[in-house]
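Problem statement: downstream parser choked on a complex file, so we are re-checking the raw output for the zinc ion run. The parser issue turned out to be on our end (a line-ending mismatch), but while we're here, posting the original submission so the record is complete.
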Amino acid sequence: PEYDLAIRGGTVVTATDTIRADIGVRDGRIAAVADRLADAARTIDASGLLVLPGGIDSHVHIAQPSGPGIVMADDFASATRAAAAGGNTCVMPFALQPRGQSLRETALAYRALAEGQCHIDVAIHLIVSDPTPAVLGQELPAMIGAGFTSFKVFMTYDDLVLNDRQILDVFDVARREGARVMVHAEGYDAIRYMTERMERSGQTGPYGHALSRPQTVEREAAHRAISHAELVDLPIVIVHVSGGEAMEQIAWAQERGMKIHAETCPQYLTLTAEDMKGLGQDDPLAGSKYVCSPPVRDTASQEQIWSGIQRGVFDVVSSDHCPFRYDETGKRNPKGRTSFRWIPNGIPGIETRLPILFSEGVSKGRISLNRFVALSATNHAKLYGLYPRKGSIGPGFDADLTLWDPNRREVIRQEILHHGADYTPWEGFAVTGWPVMTIAGGSVIVEDGRILEEPGRGRVLDREIDRTKLSPRL
Ligand code: URP
Ligand code: ZN
Ligand code: ZN
Ligand code: ZN
């Protein structure tokens, strides 16, 4: 037969087109997209289904050091298993440089941890927490050259925060080397001030977390990051934007022609700070299931973020999957009972990102199918150096595909998920639209929630700098 695999009769969707076509796969890549295809060794009937580029989640945390005694709930095997079950074929976690440690050692050790453990391909970002002269002068340029072409910097957290001069210095390295920088924009000093104020006033429960990081804190940091990017003349991505205030700063910069990209996440479209109050639950830490940073806001913010998605302020929707076990960080967390500041920040969402975005976006008529594909796959590949290998459907692309049933109704429940966390913040959330098959490198790896392989197929992808793509048109 001419093809290893043929997917027939489906509706093929890319960021720009929606067409009835068959797809022929050979040697793990898409060989043809055509009206009718020659023989294939295996045929999958996709009639009634959408054929989408596999989801790319460019912001996930896997097996990341998270403070004394706290272990992240997912390793590479469980995180990529859950990602695949949720219709994804590539995820991008972070190798975090602990202060005082070599960026190079960190990056290579993290990569070794991933090798052989993944169900789907991964590409690794760095987190730069200690920009010493050696890191700025040698290690960071060397690692960018070795395929870690993107990195994240933080404007808050005791162990990660960079001051303004350090941010300018790492931006400068990124500009020289052609790397992509992601910025966590929340202001460190303002959060410390507000945290102490909340603690003094007795607001120590999980809801105090939201009060300690109001939108002002995010807006100020976003504006500061934008200003630094303007000085250095560096395109940046402001990640996990939570509400209208930071978004307005980004839109303002974009209107002035600055290359500021933005990411948001399903939690900012569906959850609110009220959830952190844990109303009706007996455990006072029940609200910790919703603690993430920036915090989830309110329904008005959700609508503002949707309008930003519709207006093109946002390029990508990622999960910011950052999984902990409620049993450890909630129920059995005596320190967490003294103050929200001891509740680790982050929520699981690697498996539910696509169904929530599809259901709330496409099924409810807020965004088109093509925009869904751009936000969930294509733009991630374009921003982070994976395009044109991944992120779309056409000859030469990796055969990373998700068959999607746009009409299937599901209720999100912990018991149907594959992640390592022991809860989902979306328990009981009803969606319309669900991934029914995930194909990675031309092989069916998940069918109807069943994982068909042991981990090991997924590769760690090295990326190359292509300066012509630093400012992609999205
Ligand atoms: O609360 C969050 N988002 N934790 C993950 C780390 C980060 O800042 O993205
Ligand atoms: Zn962050
Ligand atoms: Zn953009
Ligand atoms: Zn994150």
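For whoever reads this later: The chain has a mean pLDDT of 97.
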